[in-house]
Amino acid sequence: MDFKVINTDGKARRCSIGTKRGSIDTPAFMPVGTNGTVKAMSPDEMKDIGAEILLGNTYHLYLRPGTDVISKLGGLHKFMNWEKPILTDSGGFQVFSLSTLRKIEEKGVQFRSHIDGSPHFIGPKEAMKIQGLLGSDIAMTFDECIPYPSTYEYAVKSVELTTTWAKRCRELQNEGQALFGIVQGGMFKDLRHKSAEEILGIGFDGYAIGGVSVGETKEEMHEIIDYSAPLLPSGRPRYLMGIGDLGDMLRAVDAGFDMFDCVMPTRNARNGTLFTSAGRISIKREEFKYDDRPLDPDCSCYACRNFSRGYLRHLFLSREILSMRLNTYHNLCFYLDFFRKMRTAIEEGGFNQFKDRWQPVFDKSYPDNGS
Amino acid sequence: MDFKVINTDGKARRCSIGTKRGSIDTPAFMPVGTNGTVKAMSPDEMKDIGAEILLGNTYHLYLRPGTDVISKLGGLHKFMNWEKPILTDSGGFQVFSLSTLRKIEEKGVQFRSHIDGSPHFIGPKEAMKIQGLLGSDIAMTFDECIPYPSTYEYAVKSVELTTTWAKRCRELQNEGQALFGIVQGGMFKDLRHKSAEEILGIGFDGYAIGGVSVGETKEEMHEIIDYSAPLLPSGRPRYLMGIGDLGDMLRAVDAGFDMFDCVMPTRNARNGTLFTSAGRISIKREEFKYDDRPLDPDCSCYACRNFSRGYLRHLFLSREILSMRLNTYHNLCFYLDFFRKMRTAIEEGGFNQFKDRWQPVFDKSYPDNGS
Predict the structure, then answer these.
(1) Confidence class of residue A267 from pLDDT cuts 50, 70 and 90?
(2) Which of A30, A201, B75, B176 is the most buried (most CB within 10 A)?
(3) Residue B370 clears pLDDT 50, i.e. is over it
(4) Where are the domains of chain A?
(5) Are B238 and B259 a contacting pair, CB within 8 Å?
(6) Contacts of A35 in chain B (CB under 8 A)
(7) Percentage of residues in chain B having pLDDT higher than 70
(8) Nearest to B64 among A40, A318, A326 (CB)
(9) Which keywords are on file for this protein (chains A, B) (predicted)?
(10) Do the Cβ atoms of B73 and A315 come within 8 Å?
(11) How many Å apart are CA B1 and CA B207, to the nearest integer?
């Protein structure tokens, strides 16, 4: 994996990550394809709207259809017909957030499937094996994502475990697959510092901050973001996991982060919440009933070029599949386009003005983490 | 509306219907866009796969979003971004099959919405007004579709009412909109004959057979199809309403019918039942788990060119939106392609061989009217 810092503007960075399946311009937003598909989108559409990398969820794919199926059908890229880079998470986050009856051991986690209750075990060894069979371009270390709030004592132990697991993952890194280490530590700055030191000590192709947006206040989140970014080396990609609020990402880019993933644009789309250059819109509102204007007059996506707000409202109220399609298409376009503009702003040394232009829009219109 | 018989082969006809929004080659299959969208498809995709005409449901669109909304947003074509011809049904069938608490009067039907129970009234006058505001290219007369079985006495009265309503619709025919009359009569041949005489006597741009596939046996259905086709004039389009089983349509084309509509390819797709040149497939079956072959090796649609049966099975079991999209795309492609082949066979005088080739496949593999 090749990494180049092309430009900086303040702490914001314009970088490029090279992989054998294509390069990724950063700051980059990675749409989430949980079950081997970005919900409601076709891979052709993902390419059309300019996605350069997708995220696949190890936990979900391991449970269904199963690693053996994807492996026998040629790996995740071929399975889902996506030729560009894929990053897989390690399954850690989902094991802790979705499964039931977890038991954490030195070697990993015993848990029951959220689909059928069947018993499973995933630790660093299993996570690396699964990600190897999926054949992603970037794998993540298996980590413990602690709940919010957690006691300091619990967080100390968890950081230790995460370091142990990270070492094991590094030893088992798959040939031809980049591996990113994950820094944990909850809301405790000294533990974030300790975790970063230990993870950096092991040495990875890139570094991520995990365990953010787990229920803490926006203020706590922003503090951890600002505190964590400089802990990570400037010569490697910095990935802030699971943060997808546009205002938060803008702050995180300003702090020096490069990569992001979140279900927010896709999940919100299916719930009828749409992102526009004038703010957030709930398409089901009565005011759009007879509205013949495009959703976002400043957007040139397929949905905005071809349909009225009145039609989009009708599709949503009728629970039509095309509603989820057009809403998702638009929201992802808006996100990817926003990142494109952000990259240009950094290239041109205008990131501060860009931030001043957009931060108030998002802080006003996007008050929470979506529905 | 312009109608030309280009070729005949036995009783099968290869015709062309000209409208101001484009011509329709027949035999034609009309995909159903109930709520102003063919479920799971975009209008661009409908164009790509070669659909020349869509069917819109007056009853559904009248209830939601409401005729006023579609009218204010520029009519149904503009509303759903479909420039080619649209045929609207009259709402009659749905008033009788979906609504509750119906009361049939001389002037129309009082009923309650299946969505929210609100009271409504649709008769010939209302049906013509709604279809005029929707702006479809072909409208249908408001008719009574009687249940199966019905008594002879009830069917006699219903045919009378349908004729009265048809006359009223003809008087109120909208400028620039073709109007088709509908022949009813249940399973009684003499009543079918009487209804045809009366409807033909009024004089319409085209003629339809309604009240078929309402619960009768296949034998009864085939008898009515064979009996009814020659009752309709050869100089006008003949439309067999609501029949979408491939074997049944093959028989009906053989009897001289030109136009068809049915939710079968789209509804079956969403239920995982897929049509292929080797017969019907249930994509959820265990046997496809590791199957890396395309769904139908003889099909060149987007789904068959890009994805394996194993992937389609996974999407279906995961209830992913892309499953409904790819399945629908394929089934509609298969249907439209089948009609293309049927038209070529008639043009080349090879319809009998075509029928011999395909009838056994459908009779074996498609034993019922779908799920």
Answers:
(1) very high
(2) A30
(3) no
(4) 2-262, 269-352
(5) yes
(6) 314-315, 318, 320
(7) 98
(8) A318
(9) Glycosyltransferase, Metal-binding, Queuosine biosynthesis, Transferase, tRNA processing, Zinc
(10) no
(11) 13
Q: Which CATH architecture has domain A2-262?
A: Alpha-Beta Barrel (3.20)
Pull the structure tokens for residue A221. Answer: 């989140």
* Residues 6+ positions from A281 with CB-CB distance below 8 Å: A273, A274, A275, A295
Q: Does B79 touch chain A (CB under 8 A)?
A: yes
Q: What is the pLDDT of residues B65-119, one digit of tens each?
A: 999 999 999 999 999 999 999 999 999 889 888 878 789 999 999 999 999 999 9
Q: Which residues contact A185 (CB under 8 A, 6 or more apart)?
A: A155, A159, A191, A192, A193, A194, A195, A196, A211
Q: Are A318 and B79 inside 8 Å of each other by CB?
A: no
pTM of the shown model: 0.97
Q: Would you call A79 an interface residue with chain B, using a CB distance cutoff of 8 Å?
A: yes
Least confident range of A93-107, A128-142, A147-161, B246-260 = A93-107
d(CA A270, CA A266): 7
Q: Which pLDDT belongs to residue A101?
A: 75
Distance, CA of B193 to chain centre: 23
**Beta strands of chain B (E only): which ranges?**
2-9, 12-19, 22-26, 28-30, 32-33, 54-56, 86-88, 100-105, 108-112, 119-122, 138-140, 178-183, 206-209, 238-240, 259-261, 273-276, 279-282
ipTM of the complex, rounded to two decimals: 0.97
